[in-house]
């Protein structure tokens, strides 16, 4: 809200098109289920091998640097708001990654009446599929799920360079565009949420 107010004030002071910092207003981000109560986020690395840990840390770093002062990620070992984890969801699962609450509960059941999470959110990468991925490709999946935890929903933009990290399909997001962290459209969403 503070950000919205600041934007409104700057529009009054300098009513020109250049004031708008939204990178591409035509490509709207989508709001997700819920968000963190603040942009100061405590995160825990619950990955089990270096190939996933590096990808998780790099995904956090990508969000931290792209969102500038809006988001700050602090690594903790307990009391985390966000847990980044790898797990084998098996052949029938069908997704490379997913964001869930504790004990595999869905996101909706972990959202409070004020629109902020009431439990830690887990950004999972499914090792059944991702064991065959490069570290950057795993990072792309982690960064996508972290976006859900931050409050963004999937976005359908299909082509580089406008495709956001919130594009749910790995093929255009990573295999074609090579994106491993948030894109301008994703940050537009964060600017409104935090
Ligand atoms: Zn998604």
Short description:
With 194 residues, the protein is an alpha/beta fold. 34% of the residues lie in helices and 13% in strands.
Structure description:
- A five-stranded mixed β-sheet has the order 2-1-3-5-4.
- The chain is globular and about 40 Å long.
- The protein has one domain: Collagenase (Catalytic Domain) (3-Layer(aba) Sandwich), CATH 3.40.390.
- Helix content is 34%, strand content 13%.
- It starts with a helix and ends with a helix.
- It is built from six helices and five strands.
- The longest helix is centred in the N-terminal third of the chain and has 17 residues.
- The chain is an alpha/beta fold and 194 residues long.
- The structure holds zinc ion (ZN).
- The site of zinc ion has 4 residues, from α4.
Order of helices and strands: HEHEEEEHHHH
Q: Which CATH top level class fits?
A: Alpha Beta
CATH level-4 homologous superfamily: Collagenase (Catalytic Domain)
Question: What is the CA–CA distance across the termini?
Answer: 7 Å
Tally of domains: 1
- Tally of strands: 5
Query: What spatial order of strands do you see in the largest sheet?
Result: 2-1-3-5-4
| Shape field | globular
Which fold does the CATH topology refer to? Collagenase (Catalytic Domain)
Q: Taking all residues together, what is the mean pLDDT?
A: 87
Q: Main sheet, how many strands, which sense, barrel?
A: 5 strands, mixed
Helical stretch tally: 6
Low-confidence stretches: 1-26
Q: Name the bound molecules.
A: zinc ion
- Helix/strand-derived category reads alpha/beta
Beta-strand percentage range: 5-15%
| Helical proportion, percent range | 25-40%
**Cα radius of gyration in angstroms:** 17 Å
- Name given to the CATH architecture: 3-Layer(aba) Sandwich
């Amino acid at each position: 809200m503070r950000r919205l107010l600041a934007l409104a004030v700057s529009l009054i002071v300098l009513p020109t098109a250049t004031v708008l910092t939204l990178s591409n207003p035509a490509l709207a981000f989508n709001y997700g289920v819920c968000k963190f109560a603040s942009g100061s986020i405590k995160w825990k690395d619950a990955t089990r091998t270096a190939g996933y840990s590096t990808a998780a840390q790099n995904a956090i770093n990508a969000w931290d640097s792209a969102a500038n002062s809006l988001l700050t990620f602090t690594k903790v070992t307990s009391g985390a708001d966000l847990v980044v984890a790898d797990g084998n969801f098996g052949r029938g699962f069908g997704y490379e990654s997913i964001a869930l609450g504790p004990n595999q509960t869905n996101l909706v059941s972990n959202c409070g009446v004020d629109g902020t999470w009431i439990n830690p959110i887990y950004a999972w990468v499914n090792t059944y599929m991702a064991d065959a991925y490069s570290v950057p490709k795993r990072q792309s999946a982690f960064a996508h799920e972290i976006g859900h935890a931050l409050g963004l929903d999937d976005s359908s933009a299909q082509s580089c360079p406008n495709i956001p990290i919130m594009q749910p399909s790995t093929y255009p997001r990573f295999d074609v565009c090579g994106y491993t962290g948030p894109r301008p459209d994703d940050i537009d969403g964060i600017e409104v949420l935090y």
